[in-house]
Write a structure and sequence with these properties.
Number of domains: 2
Number of helices: 6
CATH topology of the largest domain: Helicase, Ruva Protein, domain 3
CATH architecture of the largest domain: Orthogonal Bundle
Number of strands: 0
CATH class of the largest domain: Mainly Alpha
Structural class: mainly alpha
Radius of gyration: 34 Å
């Protein structure tokens, strides 16, 4: 009797947990509309996931935007109009390839600028190091070095 109640409890937990899951993402009835939407969604960033496209994200936000894109396609909007709507609503960040303009110049050319600064700094440090190593020692420097080496041989501490 007790084992039957336990089995019934386990089965009811499975049924309850399955009922609490998310609904399946609705797809367009027309495969052409779905293909067009997915093609557009590949070039748009999910603002929740940020490293995924809208096409590959499973977030509720991405599902809502895909549904909205399907509706816009059904209303006869062009791809450019849909992209402009998304940019107007969410900004250039939603695009994986934002346009080059005044507000995105640092985004496009910042890494190149940092690389150039790093290369210039490295070249200067290496040149300065080479100049220091190529400078011959003066007679005074030779005498001090000889004195230090003599003190070290005699057992005296240099420091």
């Amino acid at each position: 009797m007790m084992s039957r109640a336990f089995i019934f409890l386990i089965c009811s937990l499975f049924v309850f947990s399955a009922a609490q899951g998310k609904e399946a993402t609705l797809m367009a009835e027309d495969p052409v509309v779905e293909a067009r939407m997915l093609d557009l969604a590949k070039n748009l960033r999910c603002l929740v996931c940020q490293n995924q496209s809208l096409a590959g994200s499973d977030s509720d936000f991405a599902n809502d935007l895909r549904r909205e894109m399907r509706d816009m396609i059904d209303r006869g909007m062009s791809d450019q109009e849909i992209i402009e709507f998304m940019v107007e609503r969410f900004g250039d960040f939603i695009l994986f390839n934002p346009p080059v303009k005044l507000t995105t110049v640092l985004l496009w050319f910042g890494p190149l600028l940092l690389l150039a600064i790093g290369a210039i700094t490295l070249i200067r440090v290496l040149r300065r190091r080479r100049q220091l190593s190529e400078k011959p020692l003066s007679d005074d420097d030779h005498r001090r070095a000889a004195a230090l080496l003599k003190n070290e041989k005699d057992g005296e501490s240099i420091v």
